[in-house]
């Protein structure tokens, strides 16, 4: 697969939609020589990007490249696009893909960078895109890893991973994004990369809660360690390579999301620990908090695959059953005794002699 030249010598890319992550990744593509068009649902946002070269709701105080444009026309956004990046929230991915399908070039490289499951079907985003775009899953890519949009937009050093069953397409995606501040690795384990990116958002809500409750580093370390085990258990049951969770899409993404106020999921958990109801928290955030719906999806996935996920279960009880965060912590601390080496071996699919 090679990129064709167009009239002005630049390759074209489209980013659907113009949230914080989509805008930051559009800036990377623009830096790498692409002519980038952002697709947005609102005329006001398109006018702000085109007229002021800003997207202040999602990336305040961050000037955008003047060459970057925005449109509410899907046909216009995708015209000539050789790279198409989907960054729609998981709840909107199917609708956005359905709108894009009629205008997508058959040779376009399709990538998504969304960390979540479709709540109604429990499907991964690659599957949703495959169904709506009429393309095999093996031809699609996912970009994930430890990355805050605010830092990427400021060109601070960031390292991510792009996964695809098709190594050639993974390398094309790698070539599209990699530069001096944005390093990209490839990985064939699409399931592991998608599961790691999605489930870590649940643990990040828990991390925000522990910080909001005034707990210290001991509690945070335990949460991250056992949270990573839950990610690995579910991912492995779904067909992932457990080694993926020791990399950027696993422990890397978990660490950055659980330890930063940039994280929407961390901020949501912190607010919940202050006693603010979930509906009010989400209203205050003003942006999608993927971990909330992912917690519900994880509850059903753990049942489907018969996987034990006590942290996700307790966070579900806080989010959807009115359980106090302190009660959830006490339930976790009061669980039955176990042997760590045996538990770790089970978590990571290892066999003890």
UniProtKB/TrEMBL annotation:
Top class in the EC scheme: oxidoreductase
Task: Enumerate composition-biased segments (Basic and acidic residues).
Answer: 337-353
Which UniProt keyword terms apply here? Cytoplasm, Lipid biosynthesis, Lipid metabolism, NAD, NADP, Nucleotide-binding, Oxidoreductase, Phospholipid biosynthesis, Phospholipid metabolism
What are the GO BP annotations of this UniProt entry? Answer: carbohydrate metabolic process; glycerol-3-phosphate biosynthetic process; glycerol-3-phosphate catabolic process; glycerophospholipid metabolic process; phospholipid biosynthetic process
Keyword Hydrolase belongs to the record: no
Q: Taking every annotated instance into account, which residue ranges of this chain make up the domain Glycerol-3-phosphate dehydrogenase NAD-dependent N-terminal? A: 13-169
Region of interest (Disordered), residue spans: 334-353
Q: Where does NADPH bind?
A: 20-21, 41, 58, 115, 149, 264, 288, 290
Q: Which family does it belong to?
A: Belongs to the NAD-dependent glycerol-3-phosphate dehydrogenase family.
Q: By what name is this protein known? A: Glycerol-3-phosphate dehydrogenase [NAD(P)+]
């Amino acid at each position: 697969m090679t990129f064709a030249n167009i009239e002005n010598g630049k390759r074209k890319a489209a980013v659907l939609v113009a949230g914080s992550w989509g805008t930051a990744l559009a800036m990377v593509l623009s830096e790498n020589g692409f002519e980038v068009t952002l697709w947005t649902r609102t005329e006001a946002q398109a006018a702000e990007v085109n007229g002021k070269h800003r997207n202040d709701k999602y990336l305040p105080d961050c000037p955008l490249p003047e060459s970057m444009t925005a449109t509410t026309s899907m046909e216009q956004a995708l015209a000539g696009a050789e790279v198409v990046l989907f960054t729609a929230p998981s709840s909107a991915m199917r609708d956005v893909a359905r709108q894009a399908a009629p205008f997508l070039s058959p040779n376009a490289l399709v990538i998504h960078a969304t960390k979540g499951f479709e709540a109604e079907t429990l499907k991964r985003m690659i599957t949703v895109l495959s169904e709506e775009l009429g393309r095999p899953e093996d031809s699609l890519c996912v970009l994930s890893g430890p990355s805050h949009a605010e830092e990427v937009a400021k060109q601070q050093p960031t390292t991510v991973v792009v996964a695809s069953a098709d190594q050639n397409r993974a390398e094309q995606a790698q070539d599209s994004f990699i530069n001096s501040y944005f390093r990209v690795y490839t990985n064939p384990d699409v399931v592991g990369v998608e599961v790691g990116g999605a489930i870590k958002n649940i643990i990040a809500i828990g991390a925000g809660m522990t910080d909001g409750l005034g707990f210290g580093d001991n509690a945070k370390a335990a949460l991250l360690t056992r949270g990573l085990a839950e990610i690995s258990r579910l991912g492995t049951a779904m067909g992932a390579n457990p080694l993926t969770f020791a990399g950027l899409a696993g422990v890397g993404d978990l660490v950055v999301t659980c330890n930063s106020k940039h994280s929407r999921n961390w901020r949501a958990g912190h607010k919940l620990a202050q006693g603010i109801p979930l509906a009010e928290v989400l209203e205050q955030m003003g942006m999608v908090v993927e971990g909330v719906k992912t917690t519900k999806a994880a509850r059903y996935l753990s049942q489907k695959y018969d996987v034990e996920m006590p942290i996700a279960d307790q966070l579900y009880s806080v989010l959807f059953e009115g359980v106090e965060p302190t009660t959830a912590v006490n339930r976790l601390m009061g669980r039955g005794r176990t042997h760590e080496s045996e538990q770790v071996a089970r978590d990571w699919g290892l066999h003890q002699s």
